[in-house]
Amino acid sequence: MNIFWEILVYGAVQSSVYALLATGFSLIFGVAGVVNLSHTALYMIGAYLIYTLFSMLQFPLTLAVFFSVVIVAAIALFIQHFIIRPLIDSHYSVMIITTSLALFFQQVIITFYGPADRNVKGFYEEKVALFGVVDIDGQRLLTLGVAAVVIILLWFFINKTKFGKAILAVSQNREAALFMGIEVKRIYLLVMGISAALAAIAGAFIVPTLGARPHMWETVLPRVFAVVVLGGLGSMEGTLLAALIIGYIEVLVSFSISSYFGEIIALIIILLILSFRPSGLMGKRAEV
Residue 183 and residue 241: Cα distance in Å, rounded? Predict the structure, then answer.
């Protein structure tokens, strides 16, 4: 019974991190049509900023997270305005340049911090007796809670605010949005900033669990890409559902077999589903 609850909690935590990263990735693609392969590098930068600000400089947690999000968002806005925007009509060029950026950021991290992992003290280290049957470390529950709150706030922002409706308008029809007076370039910057903030938050709250690693962006990128494709490119609801599927599959396989098989089985399931529905679980089918 304890194993059941552990799988339930750890799967939720794993899924929440994938959901934060994949939602940002999907948002960029759905609105700007950009496949930003440096997205998970921003997650890595967020993790190292928390290590620097919280562990090394002893900033209060709230300030460390705030500055981490602001700095990562500023980097993302610079990337969007000066690097992606001039190439935005060439998808292959954008993919190549963003991959190069991710490798550049990785090398910068190795240069300043070295290749070794950096450990970060947990924000909440006490064990929590969940449902009175299993002890779960508080850091994982904090990560889950923060991710859930952020995703709910994002949903309300996109669906209930003026800026959110502008984002939806651009994602549905860019030309019509332009005729309605919506500044599309500003929407692209807004979306890039939001997606970067999601990546920074994911990196900030998972780093006490995983540690800060120069290659952490590489290991999570295939999973994020798989979640987005499985859920349906540009679909927030589909992305969240796919994050749950992938997250729980990995945890279930890790508990029952080995952590090395989690990604393999997840990818097999993706291939099977996409064989029957190429647009993903909730993506729109392409019109011929």
Answer: 31
